[in-house]
Amino acid sequence: MNTEDLLNQIAFIKEIDKVKYIQRKTKLFNSDRCENDAEHSWHLALMAIVLAEHSNEPIDVLKVVKMVLIHDIVEIDAGDIFLYDSQLNHDNTDEERLAANRIFGLLPEKQAQDFITIWEEFEAGETNEAKFARSMDRLEPLLQNTSNNGGTWKEFEVPYSKVYEKKSIMKEGSQTIWNYAEGLINESVEKGILKKE
Fold it and tell me: Is there a contact between 59 and 41 (Cβ–Cβ < 8 Å)?
């Protein structure tokens, strides 16, 4: 047994407990409590397993699960940026890169590199697995907001055009899921919980 590797892995495990304290803007289904990053990642992992058959292309489900479980770990250092933030860019930032290097760098070298590679693949959004993982990442808050009478859309006055633009990325991973999501978006407009400009 490599004691140094084990100690490094335990240090990483302790560090990522902090993900449970990263509050997101979106609230739990039918709730007024904000979701944390750990709850979000767990939910995405199960969604990926349950919905994998709807992927546009064949995917390695375990790889998708790994992506969604680690994609927000960088927020321990970089913080959560709201998808609809008008001041900050939600895309990969220098702060997230530094966070990835520091946090995943706690692991033994090969494992650290594997985690960074998976994180980078998710961020790039180019492989079948990354496209599907990103579809899950966009679907979950949509389901939450529709269950919460508009949720963060109403709270932060997010217009239909912005929601449609940010959510339409789902079609790259699953046209079926996007068709469903687009229907929910349009129903939300009809119900008055999402405003068209």
Answer: no
